[in-house]
Write a structure and sequence with these properties.
Shape: elongated
Number of domains: 2
Radius of gyration: 20 Å
Number of helices: 5
Number of strands: 0
Oligomer: single chain
Distance between the termini: 54 Å
Strand content: under 5%
Amino acid sequence: MRRRSTRVAWAMLAAWSASVAALVVLSVANGNFQREPLANTVGLLLAFAAFMGVGALIVANRPGNAIGWVFAAIALLAVTGALAEEYAGYAVRTRPGLLPGGVLWPAGTPAGPGTRRSRWRWCSRPCCFPTAGRRRHPGAWSPGSPGP
């Protein structure tokens, strides 16, 4: 068990490092690295590097300790979210059509997947109208639908 968790810990650290490298490359390509204050960007990267390093060390040495797994998960999820944001910016704004996923929704459509209106419908419709099933309102559960 310990030997396998050691491999998992170092694989998570390698995945985190590769994600950070891709994040920096995409951030520079998007021009966000120059626009945002450098202290914020580098400070966050250093903070999550500490989370990942400590998490990997704890997982490698004490795989039963949940804190190591939590630290590693926090760092991996944070860098994954930032990487997804930069990837989306590059695929949609910087070089549309170059990367997969950049032309999923036509630009300028009023209820595209990133607009506030469609997020409201997709996230809150089941909560606000739990009895509005698909039989009564077939479009009530689809994103961007006009609804009842």
